[in-house]
From TrEMBL:
<comment type="pathway">
    <text>Carbohydrate metabolism; hexose metabolism.</text>
</comment>
<keyword id="KW-0067">ATP-binding</keyword>
<dbReference type="InterPro" id="IPR022673">
    <property type="entry name" value="Hexokinase_C"/>
</dbReference>
<dbReference type="Pfam" id="PF00349">
    <property type="entry name" value="Hexokinase_1"/>
</dbReference>
<keyword id="KW-0496">Mitochondrion</keyword>
<comment type="similarity">
    <text>Belongs to the hexokinase family.</text>
</comment>
<dbReference type="GO" id="GO:0005741">
    <property type="term" value="C:mitochondrial outer membrane"/>
</dbReference>
<feature type="domain" description="Hexokinase C-terminal">
    <location>
        <begin position="227"/>
        <end position="460"/>
    </location>
</feature>
<keyword id="KW-0547">Nucleotide-binding</keyword>
<feature type="domain" description="Hexokinase N-terminal">
    <location>
        <begin position="22"/>
        <end position="220"/>
    </location>
</feature>
<dbReference type="GO" id="GO:0005536">
    <property type="term" value="F:D-glucose binding"/>
</dbReference>
<dbReference type="GO" id="GO:0008865">
    <property type="term" value="F:fructokinase activity"/>
</dbReference>
<dbReference type="Pfam" id="PF03727">
    <property type="entry name" value="Hexokinase_2"/>
</dbReference>
<keyword id="KW-1000">Mitochondrion outer membrane</keyword>
<comment type="pathway">
    <text>Carbohydrate degradation; glycolysis; D-glyceraldehyde 3-phosphate and glycerone phosphate from D-glucose: step 1/4.</text>
</comment>
<keyword id="KW-0808">Transferase</keyword>
<dbReference type="GO" id="GO:0005829">
    <property type="term" value="C:cytosol"/>
</dbReference>
Length: 918
């Protein structure tokens, strides 16, 4: 009995001595609680640095956005292929995520070796090898005939701008293949797979880090999981960060997973005070000296080596093995993490230690074995402590982001060190709980690796891809081919000729109305004129003073509102209102009682028998006043003036806005023979040879024709390019079946087309979370100015979202992207259609004059042309392409069409005068 006690005493004493000895020797590796709290604080600062746009470039902890935005919600389903590359084992898997609400995942997998010559050879060969393994897997599993989405778990630091991309920042751990750094890994793999085109039909939809895969795997079972940690060959963590804190990604809504790449913590010297001579020596002998310094103190690839370096040093100092060293102890990598784990086993640990040391050619005493075991403990404990400090920093950040006093959360865990080391998990958990007492943390081991999670990410990506296809299908309806545009040009040309010919004119949808404007101002015009400008966005009354010879004009004008009930009331009310506005204006200008000549810009189709007569054929755009169609609008205006009986005016000319615009520009540039409006409505006028105008007597000279091309297509000739959305817009308009071309091109309707598309996409569940709001049901919410803002290149996504929110549309950032695309498709088509129409005219003018080349100026006006960021450019490009023999200059009408109307009035007045004198 006594002997047993003595033995026990002896052993305890021996153990104490050995432990003290090692403790003293490795004093620097034992981290106090204060030190851990300090490291935790440093890591918090590092995270902040990595997240900031300006500080990220110099941050060592890269905090990489992963474009994984949500944890699985159980709705994921389908069959996926998965690759898992970068941990201790390379695996190919097929994952089946089942549907019908049941969370059920089935996996088939196969491990493949990763020989050093592959992972440290040439990059192309590495990816070819991976593709070969995948092909082999598909062959042996009989999967060759099917197309699969593929998720790639790639456990290295990658910069991503989308899920299906990964620019390798640097290799870590055991990998060092040439020519891969700074390239897109997804593309390289896709290229390598081309070789197996016959066998492999896969679409790489997602690249995820192993931490992300792990988090997602665990989150599938526990929705509280919002952190993933790997303590394996390497070490790293990811977590869900608030978008508003991620400077590097646009948008501030919801969360995104951040791959911290904490392994690089300390690469800027931030941990020098805690690194030891062994850490430095290990680093110097590694594949990536100076890099991944935190990882090198923690992870499985390095722990054994640290132990070896310590033992060697202790032996050299005579503190172990009686000062003897074996040659094996000198060999790098001879002690592995699995050895460390075995030596630290609770019961068999000491025996294992003896065996391992003996295998290394050493002859360890009992005391040596105890000491070596303690070295292992100190090294692996330090590892767990360091991980705990960094993890505590993440948990604190999560808690603060959520503004909670206590955080309940789950951390998904994986990695061989964590899994095989007998004490590691326990120690880690304990220290974390000590460092963050206000967090209730559940540690959940990922049983099925990171690929299950990667499959979840791929499932979401594949759903997004399918949705994208649906959206693209809708947008494709608005993409016109060159042939289609030429078709429009040709048909427009036919319609122009139809409208000009006496026989076909009555049936023509492009009305080709003679305007009785025969020439351009010659600069001799002068005097004071009144002008009215009705039919665009604004109703204006103007006073125009023309000085002869100077080509100089002074304009005074006032904008008046025309309330909707007047636009759509009775004709008498409308004209009384107009006269009321004139009276106000004259009053305002101090011209009461002055009898001035007046030019009336009336932007609707009128049949004219002279310059001062115009019978309204039918209302277009937003007007619908009764008893006007079929009436002479000049007479109606005169009668209204008479009714008021306050002043008299000499109404000399009624002109369309296109004609006014052409004149305004023609005053500056005599080459201007076309007037174009791209505003509320769509129309064009041009100077035609009298001999071609069968409706008007005489063959001499030219006359301006108001084409009223807005009615193009009313006979169905462009129905092949009209979409269901165009039809819906038409049906909801004031004039169904009429002005089909205008309804595809002008400001009043583009927003409506956009709205119809958005409604449809929402119905399909592709936008606004499938909810059609009251706002979206409201006609006219997308005015031209909003479309123009949304499409501005200078606007960031957030600003687009703000505009949509102002419009009452509660959109996410993804929604905003789609809305912007929809606007772009609709306005682009409009600009192209305008281009095709205009090309038809200029080509006609060129041919009529028998010219090889035509040089011509087009006067343009209208809010769509003026405000939209791309419209004018696309219109001009299209004309250039479709009418290559015409050199078309676009001249913006700065002063509106009122000036042109006044000039026409001045010319008409001069002619009137001359006639009287004769
Ligand atoms: C596996 C995961 O379980 O763990 C891998 O599937 C991951 O994606 C690995 O890289 C990490 O551990 P180790 O020890 O293999 O590096
Ligand atoms: C104005 C002209 O500048 O543009 C009007 O003076 C014309 O006559 C108008 O109708 C067209 O643009 P919008 O966008 O106002 O319809
Ligand atoms: C290395 C890699 C990192 C990975 C970790 C665990 O640190 O850089 O991306 O997550 O190892 O495998
Ligand atoms: C409508 C009108 C037309 C006008 C155009 C631009 O198409 O019918 O007369 O020129 O809008 O305002």
């Amino acid at each position: 009995m006594f002997a047993v006690h003595l033995m026990a005493f002896y052993f305890t004493k021996l153990k104490e001595d050995q432990i003290k000895k090692v403790d003293r020797f490795l004093y620097h590796m034992r981290l106090s609680d204060e030190t851990l709290l300090d490291i935790m604080a440093r890591f918090q600062a590092e995270m902040q640095k990595g997240l900031g746009k300006d500080t990220n470039p110099t941050a060592s902890v890269k905090m990489l956005p992963t474009f994984v935005r949500a944890i699985p919600d159980g709705s994921e389903n389908g069959e996926f292929l998965s690759l898992d590359l970068g941990g201790s084992k390379f695996r190919v898997l097929k994952v089946q995520v089942s549907e019908e609400g049941k969370r059920n995942v089935q996996m088939e997998s196969q491990f493949y070796p990763t020989p050093n010559e592959i992972i440290r050879g040439n990059g192309t060969q590495l990816f070819e090898y991976v593709a070969d393994c995948l092909a082999d897997f598909m062959k042996t599993k009989g999967l060759k005939q099917k197309k699969f989405p593929l998720g790639l778990t790639f456990s290295f630091p990658c910069r991503q701008t989308k899920l299906e991309e990964g620019i390798l920042l640097s290799w870590t751990k055991k990998f060092k293949a040439r020519g891969v750094q700074n390239t897109d890994v997804v593309r390289s793999l896709a290229n390598a797979m081309k070789k197996h085109k016959q066998d492999i039909d896969v679409d790489i939809l997602a690249l995820v880090n192993d931490t992300v895969g792990t988090m997602m795997t665990c989150a599938y079972d526990d929705p509280y999981c919002e952190v993933g940690v790997i303590i394996g060959t390497g070490t790293n963590a990811c977590y869900m960060e608030d978008m508003s804190n991620i400077d590097l990604v646009e948008g501030d809504e919801g969360r995104m997973c951040i791959n911290t790449e904490w392994g690089a913590f300390g690469d800027d010297g931030a941990l020098e005070d805690i690194r030891t001579e062994f850490d430095r020596e290990l680093d110097l002998g590694s594949l990536n000296p100076g890099k991944q310094l935190f990882e090198k103190m923690i992870s499985g690839l390095y722990l054994g080596e640290l132990v070896r370096l310590i033992l060697l040093k202790m032996a050299k100092a005579g503190l172990l093995f009686g000062g003897e060293k074996s040659s094996a102890l000198h060999i790098k990598g001879k002690i592995e993490t699995r050895h460390v784990a075995a030596m630290e086993k609770y019961k068999e640990g000491l025996a294992n230690t003896r065996e391992i040391l003996t295998d290394l050619g050493l002859e360890p005493s009992e005391a040596d074995c105890i000491a070596v075991q303690h070295v292992c403990t100190i090294v692996s404990f330090r590892s767990a402590n360091l991980c705990a400090a960094a993890l505590a920093a993440i948990l604190t950040r999560l808690r603060e982001n959520k503004k909670l006093a206590r955080l309940r959360t789950t951390v998904g865990m994986d990695g061989t060190l964590y899994k095989i080391h007998p004490q590691y998990p326990k120690r880690l958990h304990k220290v974390v709980r000590k460092l963050v007492p206000n967090c209730d943390v559940r540690f959940l081991l990922s049983e099925s690796g990171s690929t299950k999670g990667a499959a979840m990410v791929t499932a979401v990506a594949s759903r997004v891809q399918a949705q994208r296809k649906q959206i693209d299908k809708v947008l494709a309806l608005f993409q016109l081919t060159r042939e289609q545009l030429e078709g429009v040009q040709d048909k427009m040309r036919v319609e122009l000729d139809y409208g000009l010919k006496r026989d076909t004119h009555p049936l023509a949808t492009v009305k080709m109305l003679p305007t009785y404007v025969r020439g351009m101002p010659d600069g001799t015009e002068k005097g004071k004129f009144l002008a009215l400008d009705l039919g665009g966005t604004n109703f204006r009354v103007l006073l125009v003073k023309i000085r002869s010879g100077w080509r100089s004009v002074r304009i005074y004008n006032k904008i008046f509102a025309i309330p909707l009930e007047i636009m759509q009331g009775t004709g008498e009310e409308l004209f009384d209102h107009i006269v009321q506005c004139i009276a106000d204006f004259l009053d305002y200008m101090g011209l009461k009682g002055a009898q001035l000549p007046l030019g009336f810009t009336f932007s609707f189709p009128c049949r004219q028998a002279s310059i001062d007569k115009g019978t309204l054929i039918e209302w277009t755009k937003g007007f619908k006043a009764t008893d006007c169609e079929g009436e002479d609008v000049v007479d109606m205006l005169r009668e209204a003036i008479k009714r008021r009986n306050e002043f008299d005016l000499d109404i000399v000319a009624v002109v369309n806005d296109t004609v006014g615009t052409m004149m305004t520009c023609g005053y500056e540039d005599p080459n201007c023979e076309v007037g174009l409006i791209a505003g509320t409505g769509s129309n064009m006028c041009y100077m035609e040879e009298m001999r071609n105008i069968e409706l008007v007597e005489g063959d001499e000279g030219k006359m301006c024709i108001n084409t009223e091309w807005g009615g193009f297509g009313d006979n169905g000739c462009i129905d092949d390019i009209r979409t269901q959305y165009d039809k819906e817009v038409d049906e909801g308009s004031l004039n169904p079946g009429k002005q089909r071309y205008e309804k595809m091109t002008s400001g009043m309707y583009l927003g409506e087309i956009v709205r119809q598309i958005l409604i449809d996409l929402t119905k399909q569940g592709l936008l606004f979370r499938g909810q059609i709001s009251e706002r979206l049901r409201t006609r006219g919410i997308f005015e031209t100015k909003f479309l123009s803002q949304i499409e501005s290149d200078r606007l960031a996504l957030l600003q687009v979202r703000r505009i949509l929110q102002q419009l009452g549309l509660d959109s996410t950032c993804e929604d905003s992207i789609v809305v912007k695309e929809v606007c772009g498709a609709v306005s682009r088509r409009a600009a192209q259609l305008y281009g095709a129409g205009l090309a038809a005219i200029v080509e006609k003018r060129r041919e009529d004059q028998g010219l090889e080349h035509l040089k011509i100026t087009v006067g343009v006006d209208g809010t769509l042309y003026k405000l939209h960021p791309h419209f004018s450019r696309i219109l001009q490009e299209t004309v250039k392409e479709l009418a290559p023999q015409c050199d078309v200059t676009f001249m913006l009408s700065e002063d509106g069409s009122g000036k042109g109307a006044a000039l026409i009035t001045a010319v008409a007045k001069r002619l009137q005068q001359a006639r009287k004198e004769n």
